[in-house]
């Protein structure tokens, strides 16, 4: 099982009044659905910033977020996205989805699975995505599901699109993390480790992939 508790420092709390209630809500969803939630604590603001770092977004671009949860990456996106960018969050958990809709008015959330991103984009009359940022617990997933979501992601991205995800430093040598990293490289022409974020418990590494491989 994978855990992603963040460090809640005293200096961080005043800027993030939702942090404690988010964490408790997240924990309660983990108890209900440990497999698909995959962590007991939401990611830190710092990890959210690293996930979005240096992504150029223009008005008209489509940005998709997988598994927004309680919204640590969503908050950063909300601040950084230029006006006119089309955001779509895809959240599998019905209660987290309801909470996101309440908490981020004006942003669009779909209750569904990242396995069906091209169909979900079509349903919302949106074109291919420039950027997909993922909070999914890939290391907890069976390879068949990892493969299905990666294919869906590749098919949903523009030819010059970028996919970002993260892994925990502690799980770098886990067989499921190794096989996920091998699998994701098969779906993209370019990949690099964007950043390591220590202010997240456990510390995490952001992985960035671009130029999806075309195919079936
Ligand atoms: C590890 S939590 C991360 C939440 C948040 N992004 C963060 O970093 O704190 C994983 C999230 O992915 C959602 N999720 C799991 N499987 C999913 C799927 N197939 N499609 C969309 N969301 C999914 C879970 O409900 C949960 O909100």
Which structural class do the helices and strands define? alpha/beta
CATH topology: Rossmann fold
CATH second-level architecture: 3-Layer(aba) Sandwich
Fourth-tier CATH superfamily name: Vaccinia Virus protein VP39
What is the rounded Rg?
A: 16 Å
Low-confidence stretches: 1-17
What's the arrangement of secondary structure elements?
Elements: H1 19-32, H2 34-37, H3 45-52, E1 62-66, H4 72-80, E2 86-91, H5 94-103, E3 108-111, H6 117-123, E4 129-134, H7 143-156, E5 157-168, H8 175-186, E6 188-197, E7 204-212
Helix pairs in contact: 3-4, 7-8
The protein binds S-adenosylmethionine (SAM).
Residues 4, 36-39, 42-43, 66-69, 72-73, 90-93, 96, 113-115, 135-137 line the site of S-adenosylmethionine.
Fold and architecture overview:
- The structure is a single chain.
- This protein is globular.
- Mean pLDDT is 87; it is low at 1-17.
- It has a single domain, classed as 3-Layer(aba) Sandwich (Rossmann fold).
- It is an alpha/beta fold and 216 residues long.
- It is built from eight helices and seven strands.
- Residues 4, 36-39, 42-43, 66-69, 72-73, 90-93, 96, 113-115, 135-137 line the site of S-adenosylmethionine (SAM).
How would you concisely characterize the structure shown here?
This protein has one domain: Rossmann fold, CATH 3.40.50.150. Helices cover 36% and strands 24% of the residues. The protein has helices spanning 19-32, 34-37, 45-52, 72-80, 94-103, 117-123, 143-156, 175-186, and strands at 62-66, 86-91, 108-111, 129-134, 157-168, 188-197, 204-212.
